């Protein structure tokens, strides 16, 4: 039976991080994944615009203007609420949108990550989820090794672990667990592990067999993105709303001895009002517990 759930904080994407954390606390959550969108707010307060994740840059600026008082509450907020972070999501643009062929792209990414790692450390995060590099070139494995050797060296300075998240499409390096393990073994660092996104796994590589991805991850698994889909695209729905066999998946988590909270990442459920989202979340937790206790 699952007795510990986590959820990524952008389930309340329309709230600043200070208000989002308060809402999760009121809902009874003890564990969260700090989203890149909400971490961007922390970076903005501390460093201004320079080190923002460009993927959510405009959201951050808009929220800063709308919630000036709330942004000022960031200092001390994390200590005042009875919440812990099982992991946090790193900036997307470091591996998604950085122009890989641009000179000094590695140095640019590491410079940004150093700022983010510093503030993760301050807010109590010990594990950071990062995607493998978004590459469709013949040397994508080698470039991932080059990049993540530098990332783990930096992570060591801040006592952080890095969780590589599986990608979606077969042609993208890192879509299979075996490819992620190959990166981990080549980098050769205990600080590098796996974040398994169940929905990503179900789109192509492990369609209708997500439990296989869990079992392959074994001791390398240090973070999760739990969500469902219908095997055709990345829908990020609540578990039970797609085709994933959750009984098998939960048994697989139990078999490998995964002990962290299972972390919901369900942006496909976020196209409703705040109050509707809160009710949907409560109902999901109640119904899923009844079905899989």
From TrEMBL:
Question: Which segments constitute the Xylose isomerase-like TIM barrel domain?
Answer: 67-278
Task: Spell out the coiled coil positions from the record.
Answer: none
Origin: domain of life: Archaea
Query: What's the protein here called?
Result: Xylose isomerase-like TIM barrel domain-containing protein
